[in-house]
Amino acid sequence: MMSAVLLAVPAAPAVAVEGAPEPFVIEDERITESSGLAASVRHPGVYWTHNDSGYGPYLYAVDSATGRTVATLTLQGAEMRDVEAIHFGPDGALYVGDIGDNFDGGWDEVWIYRVPEPEMLADATVVPDVYRVRYDDGPRDAESLMVHPETGRVYIASKKRKEPGALYAGPETLSTTEVNTFERVADIDLWMTDGAFSPDGTRLVLRGYFTAHMYRWTDEGLGERVQRQLLVPVQPQGESVTFTPDGRYLMYGSEGEGSEVVPVELKGELLPESLHPADGAADGAADGADGADTDGAEAPPGAGSDPEAAPGETSGESETFPRLVVVFALGTVLVVALRRLLFSRSRSR
């Protein structure tokens, strides 16, 4: 439930967003490791985010029009050990995944917190529902938590390390009194840092640092991967992704001070089913008009090709991918690896 403790005068509702979303920079100096991103439907243009480990039990509502924080929620009693993901459920609540494990299986249990999104944007202290989580095949590191917008079922995607990453499904209804066992339902060969369901529940995107995959989602669960390249902007440490409320864009976020959130427009089969023309003719005509739309998304500045593209996928920029971007990407990988190593050593002392 949500407490009635308000710490500031309610802010004015965010202005409704029309047309294509713009990139924006997170201006709040407290947010230095934005590790999850969720687009609000109740407050258009607002995105919820949080820091990674070691920054306290806080959720931040950021207005994309200004990049400023318009509300901060304090989760009373939450340890927030290694928070990696945030996602809206069909009940309008925020589900927060304290699911990271830098020791790659060092913790027997992880947690999910659930808090209703406030009707008014204001600083507040809230008491979250707490769900204890275990995996049916043992502890592991994960950074991606998704809640299906129709069924409300919660899914977690583990990171690819010594074995392939995997998608885990939680119980149909989470329990606050018993341990919730998540069952492995599919292997996914991707180093996943975040994921999100489309608003209509027919697409699932999973991203890594430099690549992302889009999957169809059916009544039976995970479907086939969409065979169109999904571009990802080059970012210092790409850790988050969310669909815009209309389902037409992905918003990609990164860790770092003053990090930028970058939109990528979806096209063709990458779009959720509810956005496909009834006869498929309109999109097909657009794709074939000039024979050049092979990327399936508008490329943001610095976007690169998918190094794990499946057979049949095309990479419109693979031939001209700037050497500078490649060097930058490799440098980022080394920085991330060093950071994780130093963090693990400091935690083990």
Automatic annotation (TrEMBL):
Signal peptide: 1-16
InterPro entries to which the protein is assigned, alphabetical: WD40/YVTN_repeat-like_dom_sf
Stretches for region Disordered: 274-318
Segments of skewed composition (Low complexity): 277-289
Superkingdom per UniProt: Bacteria
TM region(s), chain numbering: 324-342
Keyword tags: Membrane, Signal, Transmembrane, Transmembrane helix
Protein name listed in UniProt: WD40 repeat domain-containing protein
